[in-house]
Structures are given as C-alpha cells and as structure tokens.
Amino acid sequence: MHVVTTRRVSGDREYTTTLLRRSYREGGKVKKETLANLSHLPEEAIAAVRRVLGGEALAAAGDEFRVERSLPAGHVQAALVMARRLGLARLLDREPSRERDLCMAMICQRVIAPGSKLATARALGQTTLASELGIQGADEDDLYAALDWLVGRQERIEGRIARRHLSDGDLVLYDVSSSYFEGRCCPLAKRGYSRDGKRGTLQITYGLMCDRAGRPIAVEVFAGNVHDSQTLGSQIAKLKGRFKLKTVVVVSDRGMATAANLELLKDTDGAAWITALKAPQIKKLAAQGTLQPSLFDEQNLAEITDAEGYPDERLIVCRNPLVAAERARKREDLLTATERGLKEIQQRVSKGTLAGADQIGIAVGPAAKRYRMKKHFALEITDNSFSFQRKTEQIAAEAALDGFYILRTSLPADTMAAGEVVRTYKQLEQAERAFKTLKGPDLEIRPIHHRLEDRVRAHVLLCMLAYYLTWHLKAAWAPLIFKDEHTPTSTDPVAKASRSPDAQLKAQTKRTADGEPCHSYKSLLTELATQARCTTRVPAAKATFDKLTEPTPLQAHAHQLAADAPVTA
Question: What global pTM score does this model have?
Fold first, then answer.
C-alpha cells in the first residue's frame, strides 16, 4: 500500500487529492485499487500514514521522551553573560580555581535571588547556576571557605576596578552608611547612629567609593560606632597609595567636612574636595552679614568669600525655592503638632488634674521634644499654671534661610565653574542610590549574621561586587525598565532634576518605546527566570539531553542587550 497525492487545475482553482491505494497483480498485469480517500485528514496524519507504510514504528512522544527536570535558566544566563563581559572572574583572581567559581556563584546568586549563605547553598541547585559554573554539590561550608579566600584579595580586586574606571583628575564620590547586625560576638558590631531606623541594635558602618557615574570602586567596613568623619582618612590613603592617583577630587557630604579631614586634604598633594557647610556654619555666615538672603530673591546661585573663616576656598551659595516651600510647610506642621500636645497639658493644669512645677515639667518635656520643636517655644511653668508661646523672631530667622545650602571647594574657578561644582555635588545621589540598592530587595546586605570580623568584611565586599554587576545590568536594560536612558542636563544647576520625556512617557504608559510592558529590574529578572533548561531522557537509548526553551521576544531582547552592553575596559 502507498499514499498518492494528485493535483489538478480547473479554471482558477487547484484541487489536491490524497488517496490510500494498493498495487497487486492479476493475470500477469499490475493493477491499482483505491482503498480510502485521505484528502480530509490533516497534513500531520497523512505524514504519519506515509511513515508507517514506509516501515517506521511510531510511538507517542510521552513514551519516547521524558522530561526529568526543568530548571530556571534565563536570569542565570543574563547574569553570567554580563559577568563574563565585565571580566568579573579575572577581577577576583587571574587564575581559575574552585574558590573563584564559588565566589562567582555567590555574586550571581545575590543578584538573582539574595539570601543567607545557607539559603544560597540550597538555591544553587534550584537553577542552572551550579552546573554552569561547575560547582554542583557545594554546601555552606564551601561558601564560607570561599569568603575567607575572597577577603584576602580585596585590595587587588579594588585596585583592578580602580584601574579600569579611575584616572588622574577624576571625581570620586564617597559616602557612608550602616546596617544592623544580628548577634553580639563580632568585634565590629557596635551601637551607633542607625541609618536603618533600628535604634538600640548593634550595627556596622561601611564607606562606599564610587566613580562619577556611580559604579562602585571600593568599600571599607568600620566598627558600628565610628563617625562618618573618621572614615575619610583611610580613603585618601587608598586613592593616593593603593590606586596611585596623582590628582583626585573627592566629593563627600557635610558630615565628613571636619577641620581635621580638610586639613588632611590640604596636606595631600594633588587632592581637592567638594563638600557642603553644615547648618550652624550657614547661620554664622548669615549672622555676620557674609550671606545676605535678600540678594537671592531673583537669583539662586552666587559665590561669596570669607577669607577669615574659609581661606583659599570658594563658597557657592544656592537657593532652591521648592525646598524652601517644603521646609516652611513641614515646620508649620510640626509647630502645630507640638502646640496641640502642649495645649492638652495646659488644659489638664487648668482643670487641676496636673499640679506642681516638677510634675508639669515632666509632662511638658516629652511633648515639647516629640517633634524637635522645643527650641521654637518659650515655656513658663509654675506650681499651678503652664503657658507657652512661639518664638516668632527666632522662627522667622530660621525661615529666612530655608532652601539655602552652601558648597565649599578647593577647586579654582578656572578648573571648575560654580554651576559645575553644584552639578558635581549632586552626583552624590549616585552613592545614595547605591546604598538603596545594597539594602533593598535587590541585594539585601542586611541583616548581617556573620560572627567573624573577616567574614563580615567579605560579606560586604561580596555585596559590593554584586552591585557592580547589578549596576551594569540596569544600565544595559534601561530600554526595558523604568530607568531614564538619557537624563537631561538642566541649564539651571540648582533646579530640581527632571526626567527626560521618554522616561516620563514610560512612567505614564507603563510601556517601553516599542510598546511592550515596561518592567522594574526585579520583575524583569523574574520574567527571565521563566526561560528554563529541560533535561530530557530517551528511554530507548538510555541517554539524556538538555534543551533550553525558546526565549520570548522580551527575553531575547534582554539577552541581546546584556551581550551588546558597552563596558569600559
């Protein structure tokens, strides 16, 4: 038997007929007989009949192929492609080793799904990451040993990153933050000013150094009770000593602008700085007449000099009216809230339910301090009376300086104009954004559970390297996520930063320029994770093979962007 397909044309139409026929001999002649008309069967069925008649044995796909395991692979592939493009493994160590592969796995795992080292050890086998790096079967003890290996290479790693992204005369952004600690055994864990809002908990402090664009260059861990200003000296030594930079401009916030630090910068050959004055220093300039707020009714930027207080420095005064309005509104809200609390105590005193100067004072203290407005109220307490009123002149004097901030720099005007100094100082936002990523769901640097000092340092270094990888992934995926691809440069350096029209359109429509749904960084990783690698067994051959599912258009676009991302060598 065989299948025959015939075609005939009648007029403008073509007719196709598929018949099942058999051939036989009768009286020495070959004859043919039609057994069935297969024309109405689907093409797949006709093809199957042809194969069966040709001698093939057909079976159901489920009987021939069995999918043994399916592992998320797309997000791993994207992280590894970017890591290899960055040469991240060679940044860790020039020579291949199991420890290097384990550290690479911990960095990539923190990027795709951060967790503790125990959780990381278990998660490695739940994606294709372990098999891609050849570390199947690694447990938490292996990861801890790799951390010990990593911390001994921190100086070399940071030196390689600095040589890649820093050169003489570059701007260096430096800021400090802290993260809370679980446990009591680590020598670095101390009580200090908590930036996590975890008052009373132990913490560590760490300083992050970035280049102008916000790429992390180096990180250093300090005890939790170390003040910001006490961390800058080691960073200057790092820039001049380890990184061998002859000239550098350090941009830091006002908390580090102590007399000792500025003296250190002055004494360091080739070091310049940009920082800001603290509020008491601004008030002092206003009180002595050096700063005249009335001159800024029609301008928002000007340079002033104070040869006695700030010799050999430029002072750049800025006033942002939007910030001024917000501070005025907030101050009025806090004053009103404080008055409300004080009036409640006043009513208790007038009713006789609260008496005695000492008892009244005990009740007034917390109410006056709750919103930190006590300085703006005059309080009068006797044994049987309590009254208060606002210090209107003092409030007006403070309001006159709303929206003002003053930058100070050692750079001469011919090196950097006043407007550029303001723009450069605002770049500190990049370091603050780095801390937000480190502490947020992207990398989860906190809480810290390690007990050994070197393990804590290694953990923070690992998170910094994960942020280095994350920074480049976000830059590459800017067309797909809610990130401004072309941040506009305002002609007014003091004005509030604005997004580009394309970024505003993405935020409003939740769509990319191609009309596709716009993602957050985390949701894009989740979307990539749906691309899986399936391990399939062929029972007849007693063998298995791996097959990556076909990427969706979005996944293919994300992979292509990561593969084509420009990387500074």
Answer: 0.84
